[in-house]
Amino acid sequence: MTWESGLAVPILTMNKALKGQVQQRANGVCEYCRAQAQFSPSSFSVEHIIPLVKGGVDDLDNLAFACQGCNNVKFTATEAPDPLTGEVVPLFHPRNDNWDAHFKWDQQFEYLEGITPTGRATVERLQMNRLSLVNLRQALVAFGKHPPVTE
């Protein structure tokens, strides 16, 4: 691991094999918003669920496949307020939490709804219903390509 000069954030040199394992485990789908890499205009990345700067480790169990939108807004966050109660709760953890227990699609499969405090906080913090993503979901639904098969 190397450190970029002037930043307190480590710049990780991750090998291709590890990145490939993370992507394969996720079936090419963002582990947060369920965006599909094959249809995304933006690249996907391997992100640290618990950031290195918060004590996370560079290990397969702490890595998630994430679209650039979710990765950018999550940054180093591990918790956020539940928009319903205001209580600060942990964000969704792809290795420890079951996605279906925290999120559901609306009837048109265009919007994600948080069904738990963690789900609601994650939808809000990661902006999982950002306009570009909703537009892409609408188009993919029309072609029978959304929601993705995740297992």
Secondary structure topology:
Blueprint: E1 2-3, E2 10-11, H1 16-25, E3 44-48, E4 63-67, H2 68-74, E5 79-81, E6 88-90, H3 99-102, E7 103-105, E8 112-114, H4 117-125, H5 131-142
Antiparallel strand pairs: 1-2, 3-4, 5-6, 7-8
What is the CA-CA span between the terminal residues? 32 Å
Helicity level? 25-40%
Helix and strand element order: EEHEEHEEHEEHH
Query: Could you name the ranges where pLDDT drops below 50 across 5 or more consecutive residues?
Result: 1-11
Count of alpha/pi helices: 5
Query: Which range does the strand content fall in?
Result: 15-25%
Tell me, briefly, the overall form.
globular
Average residue-wise pLDDT = 91
Number of strands: 8
What is the radius of gyration?
15 Å
What is the gist of this entry?
The protein contains 5 helices and 8 strands; from the N terminus they run E-E-H-E-E-H-E-E-H-E-E-H-H.
Walk me through the structure.
This protein has 151 residues and is an alpha+beta fold. It has one domain (2-142). Helices cover 28% and strands 17% of the residues. The protein has helices at 16-25, 68-74, 99-102, 117-125, 131-142, and strands at 2-3, 10-11, 44-48, 63-67, 79-81, 88-90, 103-105, 112-114. The strands form four sheets. It has a two-stranded antiparallel ribbon. A two-stranded antiparallel sheet has the order 3-4. A two-stranded antiparallel sheet has the order 5-6. The protein is globular and about 40 Å long.
Name the descriptors.
151 residues, alpha+beta, two-stranded antiparallel sheet, 5 helices, 28% helix, globular
